Amino acid sequence: MFYFEKNFGLFMGKLSDNKFYKHYAIQISISLHSEMILSLANEKEVIGNAFLIPPKRQHKLIIKSNQITMLINPLSFTGNRLYLQFGNLKDYILELE
Questions:
Q1: Highest taxon of the source (predicted)?
Q2: Which pLDDT tens digit goes with each residue over 8-40?
């Protein structure tokens, strides 16, 4: 399922064909049923249940179950707040409690 608004998009489901890509949006991806592998271009793979990926960062997600992914315009109010809070993350993993 895809849903788009002016400053964000939402995807719920499973992606089976994933290649390296980058985009302008801030990406938040969450899996509640299995771990995901985040592969970053020219870096090691990272394993977790939730990731925040900054704009223009080449990456691919590998996941065997459904995921929820939000794409947020970094120039929107929400995108700006996320960037100010998390913009200098080094490992991209978000902790789910």
A1: Bacteria
A2: 999 999 877 788 989 899 999 999 888 899 998
DSSP secondary structure letter of residue 21: B
Short-list 44, 82, 40, 42, CA closest to 61 = 40
- Nearest CA among 65, 62, 56, 59 for reference residue 21: 59
What is the CATH architecture of 2-86? Sandwich (2.60)
For 80, phi then psi, to 5°, come to -65, -45
Domains of the chain, by residue range, sit at: 2-86
How is 26-95 classified by DSSP, letter by letter?
EEEEE-SSS-EEEEETTS-EEEESEEEE-TT--EEEE-SS-EEEEEE-TTSHHHHHHHHHHTT-SS-BPP
What pTM was estimated for this model as a whole?
0.86
